[in-house]
Amino acid sequence: LLSKPKHYIPIHILSKCRAYLSLHKPRSLISMIHRYPSIFEPFTIPWPAVPLNATKLYPQLCVRLTLAAATLAAEELNLQYSISTVLANKLHKLLMLSSHRRLLLAKLVHLAPDLGLPPNFRARLCNDHPDKFKIVNTSYGCALELVSWDTDLAKALPPRESYSRDLIVDRPLKFKQLRLRNGLNLKRPHQEFLLKFEEMQEVCPYNIPAESLAKESIEAEKRCCAVIREVLGMTVEKRTLINHLTH
C-alpha cells in the first residue's frame, strides 16, 4: 500500500497477489482485511469512466491504511532515514580510517552485524549516499571507496577521563601507577612500556596517515590503538571478534 502513489489498492487487483500474500483459496481476502481493523480500512471509489467499463456503474472496493497505521508508517520511515544517516556516517568514518580510502565489501560483511548494518547494506546503504562513498571494482572484488572527506566526522573519540585513586591522603604518587583490570598481572618491562605509551601524545588516526609513520615504531602502534578504539566505538556492543579486525 505504501508503494502505491495514492496509498490504496483495489481489491480485484489485490486478489491477483494471493500467492505473494500467502493467502490461498478458499480463504477470503475481505475477511483477512476485516481481521485487522486498526491497520486496514476498506472503502469504495467509482470505476474509471472509460468505454471498457461503461457498463460497470457500481463502485469498486479498495483498501487503504487507517489514519493511525499511516501515521505509524510515516514515523517508521523517518526513523529509518535517521538510522540510515547514522549507519552511513559509520561507513564514512571507516573509509577515512582505512589506509587506501577503500574497503572490500566482502570484508565489511564480517563487521557489519557488530556495526548494526542491515543485511542488505551492500545493495541499499552503499548506493544511497553517492556523495560519501561509491562501489568500485578491484582485482580483489567489489570495494567501497571514499568519495569526499568530512572534517566534522574526522574527529577522534575524546581521551579517557582521569580516574579517582580513592586515596586517604590526596597527594601526588611517588611512583607512576598503571591502571589495569582485576586479575591482570604484567611483568615490569611491559608495565614500563605501557606507562611510557600512556604518556605519549594522543594520535588522531584521521589526521595522521599510516604511511607517514614507520611500521614498527611506537607512534604507529599508538595510531593502531586509536584506530581500534574508533572502530569499537562504532560497534553496537562496543566489542567485536579479533578475527573481524584482522580482516
From TrEMBL:
Pfam families: PORR. Residues 1-247 form the PORR domain. Transmembrane segments: none annotated. InterPro entries: PORR_domain (IPR021099), PORR_fam (IPR045040). GO terms for molecular function: RNA binding. PANTHER family: PROTEIN WHAT'S THIS FACTOR 1 HOMOLOG, CHLOROPLASTIC, UBIQUITIN CARBOXYL-TERMINAL HYDROLASE FAMILY PROTEIN. This is PORR domain-containing protein. It comes from Pisum sativum.
